[in-house]
Each structure stands twice: as C-alpha cells, then as structure tokens.
Amino acid sequence: MLIPALLFIAGASNADNDLNWVDREEMAMFPAVQQRAIPDWCGGIYYNPAVGIPVEGSDTVVTADHSTLTQDGLISLDGDVLIEQPGRRITTDLAQLDQSTGKYELESGMRLESDRATFIADSMSGQTSRREGSLQGVRYSLFDLSSRGSADYIYLTDTTTTITNGSYTTCQPGSNGWSLHGKRIFLDREKGWGEANDVVLKVKSTPVFWLPWITFPIDDRRKTGLLFPTIAIGDDNGLDISQPIYLNIHPQIDATIAPRYIDGRGSGADSEFRYLSPYGEGEVSYGILFNDRKFDDEDRQVARWNHNGNVGRWNLKTDFNYVSDDFYFKDLDTGLEISSQTHLPRLAEARYYGRTWQVLGRMQSWQTIDPTLADDDLPYRRLPQLQITGDPTLIGPLKGLWLSDMTAFERSSSDDSGKATGLRGHVAPALSMRMQESWWFVEPRARLYHTQYKLDSVDATAEDNPDMTTWGASLDSGLVFERPTNWFGSAFTQTLEPRLFINKVAYEEQDSLPNFDTREVTFSYNALFRENRFIGYDRIGDEEKLAVGLTSRFLHDASGREQLRLRVAQGFYFDDRKVFTDDSLEDPTDDQTPLVGDLRWNFAHDWYLYTEAQWDLEENQRERSNFQIGYNDRERRIFNVGFHDRPADDIQESEISAILPVHRNWRLVGRWMYDLDNERTLETMAGAEYRNCCWKLRLLSQRELTDDDGDGDLEADSTVWFQIQMIGLGGFGGQVDSLLERSIPGYRREYE
User: Does residue 633 register a pLDDT over 60?
Assistant: First the structure.
C-alpha cells in the first residue's frame, strides 16, 4: 500500500499535551526504562514513548472502520483510521491513496506522530514515492529542537520543513516568551540551520522588530550570519556596544568580525579568524579603536596569533601578541582570548618527541606593557634556543641522561641598561641507575655541569668568554607500605611512603657570570627533591642537603580514586650556600628549610579541599599558607573559597566565588577578593541568571581596582554586563562567558 513511505516523513521531520509535552510529574509516572532526563531549568520535554522505537523493515498495521479498493488502485479508508509502524503513527477519519501514482490525502483532521515530532493538522496530502507531504492548518512540535509552533501550511521532505504563515519558538507550551512569526520559515535538518523571511520577533505577543530575512541555528553547527550584539556600561567608557558578524568560510575556517562603538572613546572593530589544517589549529585576532578621544585621538590596536599542532613526532606552537600601548588592557576589553600581562609573549617553537631523544627549537621575545619597569628588569630575548635531551639505556638499569642547550640572548635596541648579551652553551650529562620493586626504589645519580659563554656588550674589565664547570651527585630512595582500612563504611587502602633524598652539588664561583634567565625555585614540597635549586642554567646551586619526606594516601578500593593525600617534608643543610642571585628567596646560611606540608582531600564526588603550609621551625613563625575548598559538578554549580598568606611579601588575600542555583530557574553569580593586609576590596562581581526553556538572562555588576594611569595608584572602576539569549535562536552578551571563565575557577562555558 506504500503507506510506509508516508510514515517515513513523520520520522524525517523533527502547547498542550496533545503535542506530547511531558512535565516532571508525568515523566515520573513512566516505567523507569522509559524515563528521560529533563534539564533542571525546564519544566518538561517533548517526548512520546507510546509510539515506540523505529525498526527498519517492520510491518505496517492499518485499521479502519471501513475500507474500499477499486480496480484502478484507489484505496479509501474511513472511520477511526490508524496507520502504524514501530516509532510512527497516523490517526485520521478519512484517508485515500492512489497506488498507481503514489498520491495520498488525509482529510477531516489528522494527527501524525513519531519518536521525533508531532503534527496536528486539518488535512494532509502528498506523494509517497517522493517522500513528501503538505499539511494545512497545522500545530506542531519538534522533539530534538524542543520547539513548537503553528502554520497555515507546512511542507515536509526527508530533511527539510517549510512553514508558511507560521510561528516557531522553543518556549514550553503555555509560554509566549518569544516567537518568530514569518511568511516563510525554513528548517534544514541536514545543514543544521533555519532561515525566515519577512519575519517579526515577538516577545510576550508584542512585536519587537521586523527583519526581511534572518537565519538561526537549530543544532550546534555553524553558519554565516549576524550574532546578537554585546552591550556593557562602565564608569570609564560609558556605553560599549559591538555587533558580531560570523563568517563560516570553510569547514576548517571561520571568522568573526565585530564593529564596535564606545560612547566615551570612538568606534572600531574586533575580529577573530580560526583555522584547522594538517599542521594544527590556530587563531588570529585583531582589534582596533580609531582616534580614541581619551587617548590623544590615537589609534589603538591589539593582535594575537596562536597556533598548536602536531606533524608526526613534532609539536608546533606559536603565541605572538602585540598591543599598541601600555594601557590598552586597562582601558579596553576586547572580549578576545588575550589576557592582560606585564610581558606579552612572542613565541615560536618546535618540539620533537622521540622514544629516547627530544629536541626543542625556540624563538622567544616579549613586549613589556608595564611602564614602571626599568630597563634592568626587562627580560632577555631568546633568538634562538636549541635544546637536546635524552635518556638512552646503557647497560641493564644504567641509563645515560643528556641535556644540552644553546641559546643566543639579546636585548631591545632601545635598552640602555648596559647588560651583557651573547651566546650561552650548557651541557649536563648524567649517569642514573634506578632499581625498584613495587614497594621500594633507589636511584643514585651523578651529573656534570658545564656552561660556556661568548658575550658581547660587556665592561672592558669583564671576560668575553667566561665558563663554569662543576659536578653533583644525588641519591633518591623511597618505600611504599600498604594496609587495608575502613573509612566511613567504605574499604580503602592506606599507603605510607617515606622518602629520603641526599644531594651534593660542588661549589664553583659564579658571581662573574651573567644572569640571563635564572631564578631561584619557589620553595615547595617538590622543590626539596630537585638536583638544582635554580631554574635556568646561569647558576648551579651548590648544596649539601638531606631531604626527608613522608606521604600517606587513602585509595578507594572500589574506584581506585585517591580520596586523601597527606604530605610533609623538610630539608637539612650541612653547609652554607655560596651561590645565589640578586633576588634570592631564602637565607643561604640557614641550617634547615621550613617544614612544608600539604593536604588534598576529595571528600565527595564533586568536592575537594587543598591546603598547604610552610613553617620556619628555627624562627617559630609561618612562612606561607594557602587554603582552597571547591565544588564543581561540571554542570551549573560552582563554589570556591581561598585564602593566601605570604607574610614576607605582605600579601594576605581571601577569595570567594560561586555560581549557585537558588531555584530551578535562578542562579546567583558572585566573586569577592579582599586584601586583608590593606583592608580593602580588590574586586567584587555580583549578578543573577534566569533560565528556562525559552530564555537565558544574565545581569552582572563588576567593580575592580585598576591602575589606569600607571602611577601605582589603584582606583575603582565599575562595569555592568547584560546578556540575553533566546534558547534555540541565539543571544547577545557573549563577553559574559569570557568574564566568568577568567573570574571563577572551574567555570567552563561548555557546561552551559
């Protein structure tokens, strides 16, 4: 009877209960196997388990009160007509099918249902061989789009739905938050986009604006078109509005161009270009503000090129940043993924990862945007750097460790600090033999250090080609004990892992050597077990040290998850240190390091607690302490509390941030950073979000202390952010997501 072709249309297309809207109470009444998740912010979903699941090749069941078949192939059905397959169903009072032509008509009202859509219409006609149908006087719901609407006329094919003189909305039945009303609304499921002609956007049945043409997404795929504008109001800039235009250039290339107007400054544009190639993926960003009225009518620009990719065993990376002036980030927020820093990197590097050998080639320089820094404090450029490392196996457990680095260091042509530049070569070969079993390990190691320079721009009395050679030896060892234990009714394995590290590095005078890129390692638990207490190769830290550490872990037997980790360690020196830098962090005459301990407790599935403390036993005083407690369900709830105390640096700060639901549709957003040492608030952010099936609204207020003039004096600056999104249609205020990612640890926009 060719009826399966008619039913296929119902499966290819994607109010009230008659549109198969299922609320939470109704869903709870279904058998457990048929229940489906309903988003927290929505009262229900479109769902119809009664039709079952489509099965290819299944039989079609047709029932009616009366049926007739003529000799020329005309089939007539009337009276409670039901045409049904698994996953698809049509009910009507009168149906006719011409078997010779494939034409059909359903009259006197009809209802077409599938596992993906519901159509209720006055009548329907079409052609089965072409798998198409036309409905008149229609109300519909599309399950996978969570949308509904009505129309004078709807034309269906395998992949498209064309609505004439109709409406479209994702608001739940009974709500008229927003809706599109157009002479023609075209939904292309294959391409993932819809478009409407001569369309009116209504909010609460009130026309808001008219457009001759609009496109909008019906899934996550991309399409060229206008995005909604971004709006912010700040103390310094006044009204700041930009209108993004999205360009889907190629499946591997897209771009966004956003003309921008700032009431207090002028107009300009921000742009972002993204690409995906066989050599990796990258982004190119550029923003310009013409004739800034608050900046001597100068053009202000920002740019970035970021690339990351792999070619065979090679990893390629670039991170090039440019800004036209030192105050750009203080005055303007582009919304692009460019962060404000003291030094903006300009980096190009290639890394080769072999099984035994690794190679690094790097070019690196910086743009400094802190006008208060003197030339002496500006970083060197690496133009270029070549490094080779490896760990070839020699005999049995004996391995050779190789490190060689050759770097050319340069400074800006405008630099007048008089600091030396030139070439530095460094090699650090070693022999290492790690012996271990499941419950113990011992690793002795011996290393030779040699550094050679070829310098330019040095004093007349200084040596042009200084060098340094020294040696070191270390012994790292540890034990692992385990025992079963029970914690809150659950089975755990507790470990006890003592560790002993002995390190000897011979002293060699290094005061005459330049310092291109070396600094002392920030003290921590892991720093106690390093061979060299410096990062960089200009200084090799002499020491005779014994470090003792103890770790205990609680491992959940059922999941293998580390539920709790406790660590404590301390180092003891047998001699004073003689090698140090101008900004050394510790006293070289101390006999022992501070006692350092940390704890990480994953005390629930989404909760963690981390704390670290350092205590100077000789002076009986606290050196440093940190405390963090956080919750993140990777959906809609985030909570963080932190405290940071460094008495030596006069830093004592606390931070609270959260995104907390207070109702099914409401969330509160906030952040508070407080300087306890100076008794002042550094930053506050407070706002609220409302979301349902129809809308997502956000209103945020941010107040922060900024150094607008670069004179070191902090002044308060406030900004109000507003974001509105029509679910399923689009939204404006996208910079709010960037703000939340920067401000609230753990927030990711993909959780939304």
Answer: yes
The first and second tokens of residue 295, run together, are 């900046």
Q: 7: which DSSP letter?
A: H
Over residues 695-731, the pLDDT tens digits come to 888 888 888 776 655 555 667 778 887 777 777 665 4
Computed on alpha carbons and rounded to an integer, the radius of gyration of the chain in Å comes to 34
Upstream peptide bond of 647 is cis (omega within 30 degrees of 0): no
Q: Which residue from 529, 547, 678, 524 is spatially nearest to 610, judged by alpha carbons?
A: 524
Q: Are 95 and 105 in contact (CB under 8 A)?
A: yes
The three-state secondary structure class of 329 is helix
The reported pLDDT for the residue numbered 178 is 86
Helix (H) or strand (E) holding 81: strand 74-85
* Burial (CB count within 10 angstroms: exposed 0-12, middle 13-18, buried 19+), residue 618: exposed
Residue 531 CB coordination number (10 Å): 20
Q: Which residue has 């229900």 as its token pair?
A: 44
113-126 residue pLDDT tens: 988 889 999 998 88
Whole-angstrom Cα distance, residue 261 to residue 136?
47
The string of pLDDT tens digits covering residues 43-92 is 899 999 888 888 877 787 888 899 888 877 788 888 888 888 888 888 99
Angle, CA 185 vertex, CA 182 and CA 189 arms, to 5°:
160
Long-range CB contacts for residues 62-67, cutoff 8 Å, separation at least 24: 62/1, 62/3, 64/95
pLDDT tens string 376-435? 888 999 999 999 999 999 998 999 999 999 999 998 877 777 788 999 999 999 999 999
Supply the pLDDT for residue 332: 80
Rounded to an integer, what distance in angstroms lies between the CA atom of residue 465 and that of residue 538? 14
Please tell me the number of Cα atoms within 13 Å of 18 on its side-chain side: 11
Residue with tokens 């921000």: 270
Measured distance CA(649)–CA(732) in Å, rounded: 42
Consecutive H or E run containing 735: helix 735-743
Residue 740's CB: how many other CB atoms inside 10 A? 23
Amino acid 450: pLDDT = 97
DSSP codes of every residue in 301-319: EEEEEEEEEEETTEEEEEE
